[in-house]
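Per your request, structure below.
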């Protein structure tokens, strides 16, 4: 039975699971039987999703992806809200996976409050996209944390302020701001970029001047952490794996089926990360914090 559930999680459709078991075992499992087996995962997955968070997570990455779910005969999009944390040992963990009707300030606030009720603590830095509801919820629930707007999403948004046949060098040079050694170097090059492109693309330059500061928060972290936390790419890769599997289903018959599969995939990734070598050397952050305290004394 466990093998059948694992086949489903790994990307084998219910119809194919039925065919494979019939060929291998000479015994046919009905679609309803396979569905019942998958539901047996619910208790284990709920335990994973609602487990107490007993350690601090200085880094938090949050994002959402949408899945199609049938409700009362109507197909609707459901937002799968996901949070990844990095603890002081430098290991990544999937902290939460929940469904919401949409990404709103209230749904994100409830999601983050749920994390805090489970024990989330010590968050110093949060990376996400610029969704207005999410941004407000982070400020409300985690006011002590610095917020990083994903620079990849920022560069995509920049296209809205450029004509279709814009100079490729303009965005490429803007992208280089995120590879500098420190904030001072980035700000110096930003000033040069503004001077170069203000006349040709004033709409873009005005928007960048107003908003780019939200994408440069990562420069306050140790340099070795920059490439990992200046974007939400870590969570985007998990979302791509979820998409690879949910694309087979296309439309979930109900919310429970959707949440079951997304949580199962996240749980599997979580366990893999726990077995991996540490993702970040968090001693660098600890040393930086000590140095800042010494300078402030």
């Amino acid at each position: 039975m466990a093998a059948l559930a694992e086949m489903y999680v790994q990307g084998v459709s219910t119809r194919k699971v039925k065919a494979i078991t019939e060929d291998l075992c000479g015994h046919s499992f009905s679609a309803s039987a396979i569905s019942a087996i998958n539901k047996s995962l619910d208790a284990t997955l709920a335990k994973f999703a609602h487990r107490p968070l007993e350690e601090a997570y200085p880094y938090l990455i949050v994002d959402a992806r949408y899945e199609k779910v049938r409700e009362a005969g109507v197909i609707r999009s459901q937002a799968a809200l996901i949070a990844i944390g990095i603890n002081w040992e430098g290991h990544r963990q999937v902290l939460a996976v929940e469904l919401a009707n949409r990404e709103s300030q209230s749904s994100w606030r409830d999601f983050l409050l749920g994390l805090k009720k489970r024990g989330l603590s010590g968050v110093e830095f949060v990376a996400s996209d610029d969704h207005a509801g999410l941004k407000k919820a982070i400020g409300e629930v985690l006011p002590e944390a610095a917020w990083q707007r994903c620079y990849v999403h920022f560069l995509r948004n920049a296209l809205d302020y450029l004509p279709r046949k814009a100079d490729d060098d303009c965005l490429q040079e803007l992208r280089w701001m995120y590879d500098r050694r420190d904030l001072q170097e980035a700000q110096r090059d930003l000033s040069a970029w503004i001077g170069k492109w203000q006349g040709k693309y004033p709409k873009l330059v005005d928007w960048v001047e107003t908003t780019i500061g939200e994408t440069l928060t990562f420069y306050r972290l140790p340099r070795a952490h920059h490439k990992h936390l200046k974007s939400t790419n870590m969570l985007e890769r998990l979302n791509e794996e979820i998409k690879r599997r949910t694309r087979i289903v296309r439309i979930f018959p109900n919310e429970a089926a959707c949440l079951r599969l997304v949580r199962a995939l996240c749980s599997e990734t979580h366990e893999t990360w726990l077995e991996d070598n540490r993702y970040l050397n968090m001693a660098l952050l600890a040393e930086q914090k000590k140095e800042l305290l010494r300078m402030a004394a």
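Residues 49 and 96 are 6 Å apart (CA to CA).

Regards,
D.
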